[in-house]
């Protein structure tokens, strides 16, 4: 029988701890002239940024109001964008909404905006790139207002434009149409996270898909080690 969701969510809240790590990327990225793609995962509840043939593949479980998720983006966002850009890393973001007090609250609205960013938009059906999406995540999480008002459509549109997303995609994000069933998304990603580590669930969690293991993000060099393995 499935463990009580309420109990596990309380466990999540208790187990989330800080990520105190910083890292700078040396050198200049030599990105492929073909831009890293952005798509929705096959199950429909993740957002995939990067080339499918990237040698390293990870999942990041993240909550839009989780301040430690913001810390992860602050500390490692530049590296993630770099490795996505040069074709060495594919990142699947799996949003969760356990900090919302109602379906479609702050975290639900931000999660929906992430899926809106994956859609082709405008008369010419332009798309955002995987690198732009990574920058968008960094920017949205850097402007968190936990337990406050979610970012407005205009703010999200501005964030999207500032990271280089096409205007049509930014306008699509502002429109706020339904891009994903947030409740189904949260349920599915909750189950995936539970399968990874049912004893210590929390966000951010980073999972190495290639090796089938949860990564120790409290090691300052976890990403460097992943890319060197």
Characteristics:
229 residues, alpha+beta, six-stranded mixed β-sheet, 41% helix, disordered N terminus
Give the terminus-to-terminus CA distance.
Answer: 38 Å
Derived structural class: alpha+beta
Question: In total, how many beta strands?
Answer: 6
**Overall body shape:** globular
Helix fraction, binned, reads 40-55%
Biggest β-sheet strands, sense, barrel: 6 strands, mixed
Calculate Rg over CA atoms.
Answer: 17 Å
Number of helices: 8
Unreliable sequence segments: 1-32
Secondary structure topology:
Blueprint: H1 5-15, E1 38-40, E2 47-49, E3 56-62, H2 67-85, E4 89-95, H3 106-116, H4 130-142, H5 153-162, H6 167-175, H7 182-196, E5 205-208, E6 213-214, H8 222-228
Parallel strand pairs: 3-4
Antiparallel strand pairs: 1-2, 2-4, 3-5, 5-6
Helix pairs in contact: 2-4, 4-5, 5-6
How do you describe this structure in short?
The protein is an alpha+beta fold and 229 residues long.
Give a written overview of the molecule.
The protein is α+β, with helices and mostly antiparallel strands. 41% of the residues lie in helices and 11% in strands. It contains eight helices and six strands; from the N terminus they run αβββαβαααααββα. It has a six-stranded mixed beta sheet with strand order 1-2-4-3-5-6. Helix 2 (67-85) links the parallel strand 3 (56-62) and strand 4.
